[in-house]
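Quick question, first post here. What does this chain look like in 3D?
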Amino acid sequence: MIPRWSATASAATGCTGAAGLAAAVATSPPATYVSESGVPGAPHAGLYAASMLFLALSLALLAVPARRSCWLIAASLALAAPLAAVSSAVHCSPGCPLPPYESPATRDLVHAAAAIAALLLCALAILLYSLRPPPDRWTGRLGIAVAYPPLLLSAAGILFAGRSLFTGVMERAALVAVSAWVVLTAIRHSKRP
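> Answer (accepted):
Ran it through. C-alpha cells below.
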C-alpha cells in the first residue's frame, strides 16, 4: 500500500515540478543554462526553486517503491533527491559561470556539482533498471534510449562548447527526458499489485 501511494505521489510531484520548471525556463533564451532561471532577480526565480524542490521530492518518493526492485536503485534515487534540493537552494551567480571557460564562485561550483551529481545518480538508476528482469528492464531501456543521448550531449556541450545554443538546448532536453522517465517509472510502480 505505501509503495503504491508513494509511486502515485512521485508521479504527481514529478509532473508538477517538470511543468513548473518548463514554465520558469520558457522565457529564457535557449543559449542560457537552465539554472539561470533560478538566479535571484530572474523573472521566475521562485517558480524555478519550487519546481526543483518538487522534482527532488519526486525522486525521494520514487525511492520507496524502487526498493522492491533493487536496493541500489532506491539508494541512488534517495541520494539524488537531496542533491536536487541543494541545486534549488544554492543558486548560481548571474550568468551561472562554469569552468573551464568561466571563473565560477564557490556557490556556482556547489550548485553545479549538486545538479550534476543528482543527474548522474538518476542515470545510474536508469542503468540499474535496465539490468533488472522484466518489467523493470523495459523502464530502464526506455530511459537509456530517451535520456542518455541528451545527458551525454549536454555534458559534452558544457565541457567542449561552454555556454552555447547547443549546450542550452541539450541541457533542456536532458532535464525533460529525465523528468519524463521519473514520472513514467513512478506511474508503472503505482500500477503494480
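The mean pLDDT is 95.
The CA atoms of residues 87 and 111 lie 5 Å apart.
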